[in-house]
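An example makes the point: we print one protein in full, the chain in one-letter code, the fold tokenised, without further comment:
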Amino acid sequence: MMALVGGTIITGTGEDPIIDGVLLIEGERIRGLGTARSLSVPRDARKVDAQGCTVMPGLIDCHVHIDHRPTYDPMVHLQENVVFAAIRGWTYAREMLRAGITSFRDAGSAGLAAIGLAQAIDSGIVPGPRVVACGQLIAMTGAGKYGSYLRPELDLSALEVWVSGVEEVRRAVRRQLGLGARAVKMMASGLLGGELGGQDPQLSIEELRAGVEEAHLQNRHVFVHSHGTQGCRNAVLAGVDSVDHGTFLDGEVASLMARNGTYLVPTLSYWARMEAHLDDESVPLSMRTQYRQTGRTQYAAHRESVRCALEAGVRIAMGTDAGELEHDKGAFELEALVHAGLTPMQAIVAGTSYGAALLRLRDVGRLEQGKIADLLLLRGDPLSDIRLLQDKSRIRLVLKGGVVCCDRDREERECSTT
């Protein structure tokens, strides 16, 4: 048994932290938690002094492209074969785990790269976070994500499935689930800046609803890429589980999401990174210029959409769009959410229990007796400064299923003796 003693425990539920707490772990499960006064530590337990530290659930990133190499060139990952991308994706997943991200949802990778990685991790072949992979994107014929800016005659079947009509949607969803996908991603709008722009809806309500019905029959959830207001509205009316991006949500759609229990995964990190690197010459000048001309306005609209969602009572889950930025920088999204109006505690709930509920990971995301011990031990208090979670040197321990995946105290000791 392991006992984390003397730290502040943030359970991930949004409830007040437990001060001077004790958390007991036996096997893969949490066997007890409470204050040092209320909970005794067994004599044979391995004690970890957590004074001055915070114990909290592992982070859950609900929007990741695990095979994408973080770059300002969106075409780079299209030049690599799927096997290479999958192997490199595992190196990203390993670093995510060391950064305290214990689960993630892949939001679109080439071929079966993410599904294969999930199977390898689940089988114990390689270490990594829990992976909920969606397989190929399901998109309107002639559009989609990649079809928005690549030549239409190119074979994009490794990246997305083009559909026309309800029956083709049903066939495509069944195919992805049959290949091992644990979630389904559909395109409800185009890309910002694409030929069919982010404001333009794509799949119809009937097509989206057919995808939702097929996925829910197999107890899988559906999420959509959507920037535009109408695309978001169509997706919510169709019964999707989450709207990802939601750049131009308005109060009406946010209220509809709240009534229907639809999650928002904002992915603010892309814009926030651009804002933070406007003077960085490593960012192409054309992108910095475009951001100043149009991106800054879109970022303002995106933050406003988060505020609308928050005010309406929409559950917000953390998603970074990793692949557009470094995979192990997931905690940057929490800072962006705070800048958009969430409290640090609300941001932590978005990055833990809400993410777990959305991804149907019922035994993680909360520190409660009987739950699986996916957690991290952080030096300092993220409720006072949410940016602390971005400093990997502050993450002393990362556990997944009760197994220590990262022990920086030990690594530092070993380094000092060599």
